[in-house]
Amino acid sequence: MASNASTEAFPKALNRAERKVCWKARDDLFACLDTQQKPTDDLHHVPAGCAQVYKVYESQCPPAWTDYFIKRRALEIKKAKQLEMMKRLPGNES
């Protein structure tokens, strides 16, 4: 079985302090993405202005967590767009 460098960086569960560092890195990345002209949920194309923040995020969080957080963000963005569209339908103005 081939060794994965990113897996080796997180061989054990994160403790409370490490989780807080990961969550802060996630929050910093998402805040950066939100400031871009077009907030994105596609981190295969990270805006240049957020590239360094993304590197920190990847280094502070286990790969499974980064994947989860990105997917969750994508779902939240999609949900917000759908709710906005529903509000625009006739009879739903409030």
Please describe what this structure looks like.
By secondary structure, the protein is mainly α. The protein has one domain. The protein contains four helices and no strands. The radius of gyration is 17 Å and the shape is elongated. The relative contact order is 0.12. Mean pLDDT is 83; it is low at 1-6. Belongs to the cytochrome c oxidase subunit 6B family.
Please provide a brief summary of the model.
It contains 4 helices and no strands. It is an all-alpha fold and 94 residues long.
Q: Which structural class is indicated by helix and strand composition?
A: mainly alpha
Major β-sheet annotation: none
Question: Uncertain runs with pLDDT below 50, 5 residues or more?
Answer: 1-6
Shape estimate: elongated
Number of DSSP strand runs = 0
Rg, Cα atoms, Å: 17 Å
Percent of residues in helices comes to 55-70%
Strand content: under 5%
Overall average pLDDT: 83
Count of helical regions: 4
- What is the helix/strand order? HHHH
Report the span from N to C terminus.
Answer: 57 Å
Number of domains: 1
Keywords: Disulfide bond, Mitochondrion
Subcellular location: Mitochondrion
InterPro entries: COA6_fun, COX6B-like, CX6/COA6-like_sf
Pfam families: COX6B (PF02297)
Descriptive tags:
4 helices; 94 residues; 64% helix; Cytochrome c oxidase, subunit VIb; disordered N terminus; COA6_fun; single chain; mainly alpha
